[in-house]
Amino acid sequence: MPIKIDGALPARRALEAENIFVMTSERAMHQDIRPLEIAIVNLMPAKIDTEIQLLRLMANSPIQVNIDLLHTESYTSRHSSPAHLERFYTTFSRVEKKRYDGMIITGAPVETLPFTEVDYWDELAAIMEHSKKNVYSTLHICWGAFAGLWYHYGIDKLLLSHKLTGVFEHRRMDDHSPLFRGFDDCFPLPHSRYTGIDEAALKRIPRLEILARSKEAGSAVIQAQTGRQIFITGHFEYDADTLAKEYQRDTEKGLDVPTPAHYFPQDNPNAFPISTWRAHAHLFFSNWLNYSVYQATPYDLGSLKPMFEEEQQ
């Protein structure tokens, strides 16, 4: 949350130069507060696990957050109870006239397929198109990040020679990004994917800013439109044992997957892993809700400006 100070205080200029949000007394007098409206497009098979992970990270906000859970209409999940979806979820066709302060598009286990061959691609493309005019800030996670980068910017994914799995060290590339306020210079982040980013194509688009990168995992946090689009190739939301469960699942299927790197104690798959990223995960989501959503979204969502309005003019 911002600190409230006299607008004439000399410290104001120094703090603003460091990209620290301060609110003048004059603005505070006219501030209105309402609940944030957030949509979660949950594409993961284990929907309840993903719900818990994401809601846990957003529950530490001092602002009330209203959540709409969305599932796809064009594809029926085989791993989710129809009764659960009917009771707790809605679909895009039911909310397409609604505007949101924020949206989260999760990962999905379809990354080796071409985007247009994914059963629900047309529906997801419609959601992403809708987000440009009707969502203030959209957070894309893992496959959702690759899908968003391809749909919005034409950056294709690259198939890796083996699964990238583990907890990798990342370095902040922007010391003043509000998303990393309170972060250490280096931080751990889990990854679990078979694809990577076309880094050369990424760097050719000046509107895309790489905020965090790993020597082993590549570009991990990318921002566009001054925080209105954020792409994360990893999983801040993962529980301590999520990679372990995925590793066990893959090996039981007979898949040739590497042991998750920098994850199990002494690299022993029989040892219970310890989370080293939980604090940064909570901080990242708190920063996203505060700086990319709450501090920036208009009070009246009806006055929301299209994301690419400046480019269209």
From TrEMBL:
* Keyword check for Membrane: no
Q: Which CDD domains does the UniProt record give?
A: GATase1_HTS (cd03131)
Q: Which reaction does it catalyse?
A: L-homoserine + acetyl-CoA = O-acetyl-L-homoserine + CoA
Identify the Pfam families for this entry: HTS
Question: Highest taxon of the source?
Answer: Bacteria
User: Mind telling me which residues the site (Important for acyl-CoA specificity) is annotated on?
Assistant: 111
Main subcellular location: cytoplasm
Kindly list the positions annotated as binding substrate: 163, 192, 249
Name a single GO biological process: L-methionine biosynthetic process from homoserine via O-succinyl-L-homoserine and cystathionine
Q: Which residues form the signal peptide?
A: none
Keywords, sorted A to Z = Acyltransferase, Amino-acid biosynthesis, Cytoplasm, Methionine biosynthesis, Transferase
Q: In which pathway does it act?
A: Amino-acid biosynthesis; L-methionine biosynthesis via de novo pathway; O-acetyl-L-homoserine from L-homoserine: step 1/1
GO CC annotation: cytoplasm
Sequence similarity: Belongs to the MetA family.
Its protein name is: Homoserine O-acetyltransferase
Specify the species: Sediminispirochaeta smaragdinae (strain DSM 11293 / JCM 15392 / SEBR 4228) (Spirochaeta smaragdinae)
